[in-house]
């Protein structure tokens, strides 16, 4: 396993993923009952944008760098921006939080966060970053897809599963579907959030068809293209697929996604689309 997210931290795909993640977490926090969050591919939880790896690509400049400088941001982005700013006092932008750190900020005393990371070096750093927080359990070198069987259903009964794999292999979409098949058998009422890259829209469509064939209670997909998807060797966009999307997710999309599409565009043909993959019966 060679993927290191530190090269891509804070890029346009992170902005889309984390903006939508925080909307889901905000909903979970609105009810008093405890919740559980499982992050199947957690990474290290915190990234140095001034480090060697991030500086090699500079991808964050066209992602979180643009967002923090933007004016007239939708209100649903303010918590996200405030959390990033809290890590970076002054005008410099150095630290960017991963999804585990963002999830941690929403935990109350009776909530729990499970973090899986397969890369041995990243797993060790992840554990160091969350040491001392009894609400957070790090599963070192744990296969996140196996965790979908081992850790579900959670005792809390409510919660969110974030699946954000590196897509290093050609079988990743199939692995996600297999993992979800087991997970839905164990916890059919949980909310599942799957991030995926968009290189070839036909591949994305095939993945969504596989989700449809799983016959989940309901599923909604949000896709954002930063350019025309003409070159399938490039990352032309990304998507988020929600199984049992949290109540209140869809309402802010009509303002949020057009804003992000214009802000994050890197060429002609930038667009977004939201649609039910499986409508509620």
TrEMBL record:
Any Pfam family the entry gives: RsmJ
Q: What EC number(s) does its UniProt record assign?
A: 2.1.1.266
The record's annotation in InterPro entries points to: RlmJ (IPR007473), SAM-dependent_MTases_sf (IPR029063)
Q: Which reaction does it catalyse?
A: adenosine(2030) in 23S rRNA + S-adenosyl-L-methionine = N(6)-methyladenosine(2030) in 23S rRNA + S-adenosyl-L-homocysteine + H(+)
Domain of life from the UniProt record: Bacteria
The enzyme's main class, written as a single word, is transferase
GO MF terms, alphabetically ordered: 23S rRNA (adenine(2030)-N(6))-methyltransferase activity; RNA binding
The protein's UniProt keywords, in alphabetical order, are: Methyltransferase, RNA-binding, rRNA processing, S-adenosyl-L-methionine, Transferase
Sites annotated Interaction with substrate rRNA: 3
Q: Per the record's keyword annotation, is RNA-binding included, yes or no?
A: yes
SUPFAM superfamilies assigned to the protein according to its UniProt record, in alphabetical order: S-adenosyl-L-methionine-dependent methyltransferases
Quote the record's binding site residues for S-adenosyl-L-methionine. Answer: 18, 41, 99, 117, 164
**GO biological-process terms attached to the record:** rRNA base methylation
Q: Which GO terms describe its cellular component?
A: cytosol
Q: What does the UniProt function comment say about this protein?
A: Specifically methylates the adenine in position 2030 of 23S rRNA.
The UniProt entry, under PANTHER family, shows: RIBOSOMAL RNA LARGE SUBUNIT METHYLTRANSFERASE J (PTHR37426:SF1)
Family per record: Belongs to the RlmJ family.
Describe, as the record does, how this protein assembles with itself and its partners. Answer: Monomer.
- Entry protein name: Ribosomal RNA large subunit methyltransferase J
Which organism is this entry from? Pseudidiomarina planktonica
- Organism placement in taxonomy: Bacteria, Pseudomonadati, Pseudomonadota, Gammaproteobacteria, Alteromonadales
């Amino acid at each position: 396993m060679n993927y290191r997210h530190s090269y891509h931290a804070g890029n346009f795909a992170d902005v889309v993923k984390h903006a939508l993640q925080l909307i889901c977490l905000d909903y979970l926090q609105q009810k008093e009952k405890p919740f559980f969050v499982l992050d199947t591919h957690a990474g290290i939880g915190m990234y140095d944008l001034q480090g060697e790896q991030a500086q090699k690509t500079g991808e964050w400049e066209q992602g979180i760098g643009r967002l923090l400088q933007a004016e007239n941001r939708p209100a649903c982005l303010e918590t996200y921006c405030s959390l990033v700013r809290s890590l970076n006092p002054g005008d410099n932008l150095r630290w960017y939080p991963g999804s585990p750190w963002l999830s941690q900020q929403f935990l109350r005393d009776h909530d729990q966060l499970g973090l899986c990371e397969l890369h041995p070096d990243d797993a060790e750093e992840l554990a160091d970053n969350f040491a001392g927080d009894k609400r957070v359990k790090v599963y070192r070198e744990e296969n996140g897809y196996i965790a979908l069987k081992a850790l579900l259903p959670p005792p809390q009964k409510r919660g969110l599963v974030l699946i954000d794999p590196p897509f290093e292999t050609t079988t990743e979409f199939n692995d996600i579907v297999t993992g979800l098949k087991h997970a839905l058998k164990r916890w059919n009422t949980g909310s599942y959030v799957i991030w995926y890259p968009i290189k070839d829209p036909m591949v994305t469509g095939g993945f969504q068809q596989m989700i449809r064939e799983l016959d989940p209670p309901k599923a909604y997909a949000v896709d954002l293209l930063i350019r025309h998807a003409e070159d399938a060797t490039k990352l032309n966009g990304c998507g988020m697929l929600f199984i049992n999307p949290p109540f209140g997710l869809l309402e802010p999309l009509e303002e949020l996604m057009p804003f992000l599409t214009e802000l994050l565009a890197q060429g002609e043909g930038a667009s977004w689309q939201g649609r039910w993959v499986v409508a509620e019966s």
